[in-house]
Design brief:
Layout lengths: L1 E10 L4 E9 L7 H11 L7 E8 L5 E9 L2 H7 L2 H6 L5 H9 L1
Antiparallel strand pairs: 1-2, 2-4, 3-4
Amino acid sequence: MDIDIIDEDENPMLHRTDVRFEVTHEEATPSRLSVRDSLAAMLNKDAEEVVIRKLDTKFGMRKTVGHAKVYETPEHAQDVEQDHMLERNKIVVDGDAEEGEEA
């Protein structure tokens, strides 16, 4: 799997960088988590600071275009992102783990 960054836009108000990228892959579309981990490694960021918002593969193609938000810290991601996006990207919200244990 090869990742090429198409565009990067700084968003200092939300402490993040919006990244558009293209993934070239041999087999089926890679999982959201494998793309997240590869993109995080490429950008020298922690995996919990990268939120993959969208992956779009055209039928029969070996290229996937994606959009990610790369935060300065995992806490900034948790403050800004919606819960379902944090869950999809396996970013653990501190308060949720405690609430789940009580229920």
